[in-house]
Amino acid sequence: MSRLAKKPIRVPKEVTVEIDGTRVKVKGPKGELEKVFHPDVIIDYDKEKNEIWVRRLSDEKFHKAIQGTVWRIINNMIQGVVKPYRKELVVEGTGYRVALQGRKLIFTVGYSHNPEYEVPPMVDVKVEGQNKIILESPDKEKIGMVAAQIRDIKPPDPYKGKGIRYADEQLKLKPGKAGAK
Asked: Domain 85-166 falls in which CATH fold?
C-alpha cells in the first residue's frame, strides 16, 4: 500500500486546483498543467482545508500501485507550478558546443552535420557559454523527456567522456588498450 497516499496533498494558497472526475487542472504563478488520470482512482478536493485526497476502489495490487502513482504526479504538478523543475546538461569535448537560435538548439558535436533540436513550448531553455544547457519547466515529465532526447543526440563516450551529459552525472571512464595490461 502506498504510504504517501494515506496523507493528503497540501495545496499552497497561490495555487488553484480544478478537479472534474479524473481530470486535474493545476494553475500557479509559474504555469498551468492539466492531466487526466486512470478512471479507477477517486480524487477529492477539500477547498476549506486546501487538501487533495487520492483514494482507490479496492485493495487489489493494481489499485494500490495506481493510487501512489497518481498521488505523486499530482504532488509534482503542484510543486512544478510553484517552483519550476530544472535540468542542466553539459556538452563536453574539444570543439563541441551548442548554440541557441530562437527555440532551436544547434549542436556541434563531431558529426558531419550539425544536429538541431526544437525545444517544445512548455520548456524554457537557456545556453550559458558554449557548453551548458539549462532547461526549466513546471512539468517534471516533459523536462525529463526533453533532457533525455537532448542527451541522446551524442551520449557520453565511455572512454574519453566526450558528448552530452547531465551536469550532475558521474561518468565512470573505461581504461583503454594501454590500461588493460
From this structure: Outer Surface Protein A; domain 3 (3.90.930)
